[in-house]
Write a structure and sequence with these properties.
The chain has helices at about 5-10, 15-35, 60-70, 130-140, 170-180, 190-195, 215-235, 245-260, and strands spanning about 50-55, 75-80, 95-100, 115-120, 140-155, 160, 200-205, 260-265, 265-275. It is α/β, with parallel strands linked by helices.
Length: about 280
């Protein structure tokens, strides 16, 4: 994808090799926190006619990892861009990757095709604080009785913590104070309500606090994403998220992290079932 088309699709982060490495690392970090790829309340069958889709698949790492659990089921990954996909020749035979825009009407051949739809960390995708257009599309892809699983990090759960009370955490708190007004994530707290409003049943949200030993690792991944945001914002001289001053503050916050300070955000997994 050209740099111009990258701008046109509205993605808020990068698609460099470092970005792809971050997505892969992020996957295994989230899996470690959740202890699953597919929530254990969702029934699965390792059979060819059991179909799973990952929307916003990025590098395809989730579908590749799920294949290790379900090596016969049909597993598809979709993203607006194929830039971060691995070569199709290296994919397992039951895994495929393709492209579509989750904000636009879903292709007819995908309607009511899947038993499970998985989506994760769409804070850079949702527009105008309203995930409803995306959620409607996801539901349209489900067979009757199928499940949606949506994982997000809720910014309202975030806190800056430290291993010892005397540790300085001023820079990290300042960084959060600059970034948070630009996040537009109030919809995350309403996700289960939106599931119910769209007719899904058996709706539950599961909370997975980050254990102390994983707080530094989780914060490092967040810093990697913030670095991408900073790089993109440098193209806009009016953005408070770009420029040398914000980069310097980020560097100071990273030094605080090395001393034993962390940013803790709880991942939330919302599950709902389409009516039969």
């Amino acid at each position: 994808m050209s740099s111009q088309s990258h701008k046109l699709d509205g993605y808020g982060l990068e698609r460099t090799h470092l970005s792809s490495a971050r997505l892969d690392l992020q996957h295994y970090l989230v899996k470690d926190i959740l202890r699953y790829n597919i929530h254990p309340d969702i029934p699965v069958r390792d059979e060819k006619d059991f179909k799973i889709a990952d929307v916003g698949t990025g590098t395809g790492i989730w579908v590749i990892d799920v294949n290790r659990q379900l090596s016969t089921a049909s597993i598809d990954g979709f993203d607006i861009s194929a830039d971060q996909f691995p070569p199709k020749e290296w994919l397992p035979s039951n895994v495929s990757l393709g492209t579509f825009d989750a904000l636009l009407p879903i292709p007819d051949e995908l309607i009511e095709k899947y038993d499970i739809i998985h989506v994760r960390i769409f804070v850079a995708v949702v527009k105008n604080e309203d995930p409803t257009p995306i959620l409607k599309n996801l539901i349209s892809m489900l067979k009757p009785g199928g499940y949606v699983q949506w994982t997000e990090f809720n910014p309202h759960s975030e806190r800056v913590t430290s291993a010892r009370p005397e540790l300085k955490k001023t820079a990290l708190e300042q960084v959060q104070g600059i970034i948070n007004p630009h996040m537009h994530c109030n919809w995350v707290a309403r996700l289960s309500q939106l599931f119910t409003q769209q007719g899904l049943t058996d709706v539950h949200t599961f909370y997975h606090p980050v254990s102390p030993e994983m707080q530094v690792a989780a914060t490092r991944v967040i810093f990697m994403a913030r670095h991408e945001i900073n790089l993109k914002a440098q193209a806009d001289p009016k953005s408070p998220l770009g420029g040398a001053e914000f980069s310097k503050l980020n560097a100071e916050a990273f030094e605080e992290l090395n001393q034993g300070v962390a940013l803790v955000i709880t991942p939330e997994v919302t599950v709902g079932r389409k009516r039969v």
